[in-house]
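Q: Hi! First time doing this. I have a protein sequence and I read that you can turn it into a structure. Is that right? Here it is:
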Amino acid sequence: MYLHWPREATLTSHEAPILRNSAFLFLPALAWWPILLVIVLGALSSPAPAQSPEIEMRELSSTQIKKGVGAIGFGGDGATWGNYARIWHEADTVPADYGESQFDDGNRFHFEAVGLTSPSTWHHLTFYGITMVQHGSTIHVNLQSPGLGSSAVPVTGYGADLGIFGKVAMPLWRGLSIGILISHETSHFYAVTDAAPGQSIHYDTVWRPSGGLGMIWQPNHRFFLGAREMVNNDMEFRTDPSGTFHGEVRSSEFRLGGTFSPWKGAWLDMGGTNLIRSDALARTQSHFYHPNLGFEQQLLQQQLTLRGGLDETSPTAGATLKVKRFQVDSAYVKDMARSRIGNFFGPSSSSVLLTLTYKYRTQNGE
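A: Yes, that's right. Below is the predicted 3D structure, encoded as structure tokens:
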């Protein structure tokens, strides 16, 4: 995955030696100190408390789609390889995604998604849209709600999540790129208590304006910095034997990361995530910092790429295979989103994600 910037951002023969001897060594060291701070703070963070089941499901689907399967296998750094500002690098493509998370207690979720990236337009301005559907049936969890009693009770239910996401990105000036995300997502979870099947509980969300902003700065072809901010808002409705209640669910996620190439075909990535969440109905709040670390190596003349990393507290691994106009990205994550959902759906899980991408037009228009 080598980045290629517009001609005006290409280094001249006189600038290259200077950057190799100064910026490549000194700039990364300066720029990465905030990322190192995030990693240190991550060691002091406590796991985020579990919130509502239909919201927690998103950590296994839409949260991952917004980063991309390649970035997930690389340690999930949404500030660099998973940044919205990189969409213009993926012009003229059609991606299809599949993901599955299997928990040790039998709970299982899967999602499918299909998208389209437009051709590069004015000044490399590029548009991207994707729609996603997630399902989970016979899900066993413990839920606490006033209509079910004073303590959490075992329930069995079904959950679904539907999302439509749009992105736009373009390079601006001297290696700086910007990207914008607009998202529309609704989630549902319906369950009955195991002890009394006549008692049920329903969770539904109504969309509120949500989106994000991403920026990437690449002073040379071996190093770049990225930052990404994302805000999600939902109005949640909970219906149980005591009635229907509603409250806002909010999250604000900030990511910062940097990556550099120590040798040809290799990338070393380091970043961090700061997440603030609140759920009015569940009466929970959380705030944590966690790291994102990754390394990848291109092989066979860039036709094969192998990668691995740490996404917050979840080990990851991945690979990319390119054959003509097709590209297959795969990723494996152990205990996906464990730092966010804890053991809400089960004590441990294994997740596999795949993306098949077809490039419908090459650069020379063939």
